[in-house]
Model the fold of this input.
Amino acid sequence: MIHKLKCLLHLMLLSISATSLAQVAVGAPPSDAEIRTLLSKRISDLSGGEKKVGIIVGLINPSGTRIISEGYIDENGLRKPDGNTVFEIASVTKVFSGLLLAQMVQKGEIDLNTPVSNYLPKDVKLPQQNGKQITMLDLATHTSGLAFMPDVAIENSKGLYDYLASCKLNTEIGKTWDYSNTGYWLMSEIISKKTGIPFEDAMSKEILSSLQLTSTGFKLSPSMRANLAVGLDASLQKAPMMVDVPNYKLMPAAGLLYSSVNDLLKVLTISMGIKRNALSPAIEVSLSRSRPISDKKKQALGWIILDEGVDQFIYHDGISAGYAGCIMYNPKKQIGVVVLSNQATDISDLAHHLLDSTFPLATPKLVKQTQLKLEPSKLSNYEGKFQTADGEVFTVSKKGESLQLESPPDWGLPVLAIHPESETKFFMKELPMKVIFNQEAGKIESIVIYPPRRNDGISAKRVR
Done:
């Protein structure tokens, strides 16, 4: 149960959409005016009328591209998004990481069926199951069994190797899809060792340069920084960048790229075969090897492939602390879409809907809680360590005149402030996540954590 809830939480932070798609037919994309109406409605739902949220859409087919945007991308309501506006693209990064791996496979530098251990120093120990070893294909298709995130804080590559030497696998190697940032982290370490340069440099040399992407990278160039949208959390407050979040900052392959609609449309141009370049064979490799996610979904190298009747959708999406994005195309209809937003709420349904008008749109709402003022002297009563039945520990501590919650490391969350709406009910501003404190004889004895998209909570008893 805990593991499933963590995966749901991941949908709010560096995630892929878990939306179950109904079998539908694909029609022509809406007109610019219709798209603006959709975007205005979504922005109104997300912003409550504040001029902070912006969404931009790029559509592509063999005839050309269209870019439509609405809203604002700064806290003062002065800047509007355009094709060069830069966003964190979170787990959409995995499309690029999978392509870099596919390029090395296509060149004969990496074999997908080779055990990962063959590419690492001999003193690095990896988990095995009955003699079965993790392969590169397992890492790329999220079937390695490695956890979504490590359950310890890690400072460098050695720390990752130390963790891998003693970690337990969640699922059987090569059999079950189980989304793993840890797996992509390890994959980036191997790519770095094979190329002899940092993963980020290999990505720039082999992929970004070949695609002629000028607004995509792991670091913000001066022009990218000038065009950067201000990322907002669920309550419209400025969000931390993912490069500042522990553990995440060490795993660029999992979700640390910045990009723009113009650049992502270039990716679709080659991916859809509208144009060919030196990476076209690698793109074919990236889609040729896959493992099942469900009856209709497959995980390829980076891309997710969804088969719906006669139609196929190839896509990836992601959400960071302050941004959301989705890139998707239908290879049969030769239509593609990019949707980017500067607010951490899933907008993947918009991308689906723009390629298929019968796909239902979500109805998100901006939730604003009223914060209660508690006496600072009472805050120490809430402090403590709380353990779940599965052994995971949440730590509540006082910082200044407020409380903060530290989740287990494998939840992949930074330490976040929790705010009281009553003496027992607390909420987070960054995520739709709540904490309920239970008292017995005037003392806090347990808590219940309510992650996003769940009505049932996770109970944890005070252990210290």
About this structure: The two ends are 24 Å apart (CA to CA). The longest strand covers residues 311-319. The domain at 376-462 is CATH 2.40.128 (Lipocalin). The chain has two domains: 11-107+181-355, 376-462.
